[in-house]
UniProtKB/TrEMBL annotation:
<keyword id="KW-0472">Membrane</keyword>
<dbReference type="GO" id="GO:0015271">
    <property type="term" value="F:outward rectifier potassium channel activity"/>
</dbReference>
<dbReference type="GO" id="GO:0030322">
    <property type="term" value="P:stabilization of membrane potential"/>
</dbReference>
<keyword id="KW-1133">Transmembrane helix</keyword>
<keyword id="KW-0407">Ion channel</keyword>
<keyword id="KW-0812">Transmembrane</keyword>
<dbReference type="GO" id="GO:0005886">
    <property type="term" value="C:plasma membrane"/>
</dbReference>
<protein>
    <submittedName>
        <fullName>Two pore potassium channel sup-9-like</fullName>
    </submittedName>
</protein>
<keyword id="KW-0813">Transport</keyword>
<feature type="domain" description="Potassium channel">
    <location>
        <begin position="83"/>
        <end position="146"/>
    </location>
</feature>
<keyword id="KW-0406">Ion transport</keyword>
<dbReference type="InterPro" id="IPR003280">
    <property type="entry name" value="2pore_dom_K_chnl"/>
</dbReference>
<dbReference type="InterPro" id="IPR013099">
    <property type="entry name" value="K_chnl_dom"/>
</dbReference>
<dbReference type="Pfam" id="PF07885">
    <property type="entry name" value="Ion_trans_2"/>
</dbReference>
<comment type="similarity">
    <text>Belongs to the two pore domain potassium channel (TC 1.A.1.8) family.</text>
</comment>
<dbReference type="GO" id="GO:0022841">
    <property type="term" value="F:potassium ion leak channel activity"/>
</dbReference>
<feature type="domain" description="Potassium channel">
    <location>
        <begin position="181"/>
        <end position="258"/>
    </location>
</feature>
């Protein structure tokens, strides 16, 4: 009977996870399409304006020194690729829509991409209002399941390997295990980030910690190598998305584990405080009674025979 009940509960948990993941994915796809329709024209116009001003400025500068039109275009392209990667506006494609939706509903908000139109900003308000709770529900479910997996693994390890029939302090050990797993994952994705983003390990560690905690300063943003190969670009984008969700799941798992640990340690009641105070008072009183009393012994007078004779 208990086995069938546990199976039913696990099946319900799996259905809940699948439903919430599917809901979030559909919501991200919906928001990406809407943002793409609302923002693509404005982004294209910004790119065209920037391109026009850039070409005019560079042409007037380079014509003073270079007469060959081909060499001038090559130099302009090199300058654009080398120095203008951060400031040059980009076309708003479907990946831009996915990027802004994920940053919005996960509350990361790097700031490298944002809606420019009034319609896009109004839609973002409504979209994030619904999407943030949906994402929180999905991450809560994932974090709860991951916490149970870690807890079950610790119990199984202590029973089968350490031969402990009744494992103790499981909540505290679960918190430690989750923190260790998070630290290992953070170092692992930072090491991969050094290869993909050409960052130092310290920078990659800083960026992914800021991302994992949803601080999102925006001074560094994971963007990949900017390769022209669509397969590599898709893999880099998929790596970033998976890392986002896995990091946020671990943060939710940490919150669940900490909550269980703190709830397992009940605060002392008034009666407990009174009893502890009375015990302290009793111990102090007994110590005073046990201390030996010190009596000053006065010297006895000498007998007359012992007194010295005077001449």
């Amino acid at each position: 009977m208990s086995e069938s009940k546990s199976t039913t509960q696990s099946m319900y948990g799996a259905k809940t996870i699948i439903f919430r993941v599917f809901t979030v994915l559909v919501y991200i796809a919906f928001g990406s399409a809407i943002f793409h329709l609302l923002e693509k024209d404005e982004a294209a116009s910004e790119v065209a304006k920037f391109e026009e001003n850039y070409n005019k400025t560079m042409t007037s500068i380079l014509r003073r020194f270079i007469l060959n039109e081909t060499d001038m275009k090559i130099i302009m392209t090199e300058i654009r690729e080398t120095f203008l990667q951060e400031v040059f506006p980009k076309e708003w494609d479907i990946t831009g829509g996915v990027n802004i939706t994920i940053q919005a509903i996960t509350t990361i908000g790097y700031g490298d991409i944002a809606p420019r139109t009034v319609a896009g900003r109004m839609f973002l308000i409504i979209y994030a209002t619904i999407g943030i709770p949906l994402m929180a529900m999905m991450l809560t479910t994932f974090g709860e399941k991951l916490k149970h997996m870690i807890r079950s693994s610790i119990i199984c390890f202590e029973r089968k390997i350490l031969k402990r029939s009744r494992p103790r302090d499981i909540q505290r050990k679960s918190v430690i295990a989750v923190f260790v797993i998070t630290a290992v994952l953070l170092c692992f994705i930072s090491a991969i980030g050094t290869m993909i983003e050409n960052w130092d390990f310290s920078v990659a560690l800083y960026v992914w910690f800021v991302t994992m905690t949803t601080i999102g300063f925006g001074d560094y943003v994971p963007q990949g190598r900017g390769t022209s190969n669509p397969i590599l670009a898709a893999l880099e984008f998929l790596y970033a998305v998976i890392t986002f969700f896995l990091s946020l799941t671990l943060m939710a798992c940490i919150l669940h584990a900490l909550s269980d640990w703190l709830n397992s340690t009940k605060p002392p009641s008034k009666n407990d405080l009174k009893q502890s105070l009375s015990r302290i008072a009793n111990s102090l009183s007994t110590r005073r009674e046990e201390q030996p009393s010190i009596i000053m012994a006065l010297p006895r007078p000498l007998p007359p025979q012992a007194l010295p004779r005077t001449m």
